[in-house]
Amino acid sequence: MNLLLVGIAAIGTVASTGYCVLSLWAGFRFASLRKRISPTANDLPPVSILKPVKGTDPEMYLSLRSHCVQDYPGYEILFGISDPNDPALAVVEKLQREFPARTIKLVPCEQKLGANGKVSSLAQMVPEAKHEFLLVNDSDIRVDPDYLRTVMTELQEPDTGVVTCLYRGVSAHTIASNIESLGISTDFMAGVLAAWQLEGGLQFGLGATLAFHRSDLDAIGGFEAIVDYLADDYELGRRICKRNRKVKLSQTVVETFLPAYDFPGFFSHQLRWARTIRAARPSGYAGLLLTFTLPWAILTLMLARGAVWAWVLFVIAVVMRMSMALAVGKSVLRDKEVLRSWWLIPVRDFLALVVWFRGLFGRRILWRGDVFQLRRGKLQRLE
Asked: What is the mean pLDDT of residues 350-355?
């Protein structure tokens, strides 16, 4: 029996080390393609940016402001607010005063069209948008001045239906926030790149950016078709992709600003994330078990009782895990926090394993203060 367990652990270590190699290769390939991008198209179409807001996120004002200073010939920004007393309203009004020449609109979104409040707001914002090209991203996303030009240039490529972006997390400098930021840059985005490499492109979207044609949105039934789904970004990209349209992974990388999590808040958010992935991609969630390189390597070393071959495998696994983390986090995402927090990677990886096991069971999630149950990817509110 012990020999069988050693064999299983060794196979898990080899497989997860292979995953690190794949992610490392995908990161290098993505970085090499970035050098060929030159977003200097002169005839770029006007675009409507749709941003539902609720409450105030960390660094929200500066994040929203970064969308107002884009080097782009013509665009409008629509902010959807479901509650007239929402504190986000003051932030939007400040931007309107600061940028009077920029088209910045407030769109009341008081109807509850489904369980996903963000998507409900988006469905009410679309009729108010003037342009054929739409771009959606979250309120905590900060972008570079050439962001819109890059994304819209990429959206003009033949057969491209959606452009989405990688992102790096900016922590609020609590330990839990640092660990989540580290996980985004050294694990989650590495998984996205691995999927991009294996599948010859992405077949889903990321909430950091979703740029698309209004006609493609209409063809999948509009936002109303996904108003009860938790993983709305995934569903939007997947459904447009199924219409033989490509999902393009942009060469621009954006930032998301994380709250000052304590550990209960961290685990709650990670568990929601895990159950979202399990609901959206069950087979992909199962496959995540083979991405926990350091836990597999330590388990092999323990079960093999420190055999020489187990030590060799352990060293290779550690080197590849750290190489992948640094390559994706530093070289691809240009995350300055990775080098400062790299020593937390083993802690993060073991916590991720705990979250993965916990995510296998149960359907309840806590989202923006409300409790829901997940059924086949859809949200059901629990009173």
From this structure: 95
